[in-house]
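Quick note —
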Amino acid sequence: MLAETICSAVSAAGLGIAAVTAYRKRLLTALRITAYSLIPVGLVMTGAVGWLASTAFSPLAWAGFGVLGASWALFALTRAVERRRGVRAERAAAGDGKATPVSPSASAPALRQGTARGSRPATPSAPGSSASPASSSDDFSDIEAILKKHGI
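Predicted structure written out below.
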């Protein structure tokens, strides 16, 4: 009974604020305030407030929340163990049980497809350019060649 009275008072106050806001010609804001202030009355009318009030003071309901929390914790624990075992199973399947190291160049994009590593593909030089070909150790030689080709 007390919860219903409080919800009605909150809604009445919200509708009053909405009326003042509408009087000040802020109609969109007034409609939004009206929508928010009707929520508590709607909850009282559906019975949700009564259910929440009876649940909040029920020891059986709090025990139920405890059981739900324990269930969630068990799900989280089994998920963590499953993830951990999955990683170990992949390592064991890979070979000797240890993770194999990956070379840094394994994930590098293949800029020079079709050529052996360390050799430079033949690039035609732009007419009238006196630039000498870059060494194979130069990482930006491909980029420089593209820029020179476009005259940049």
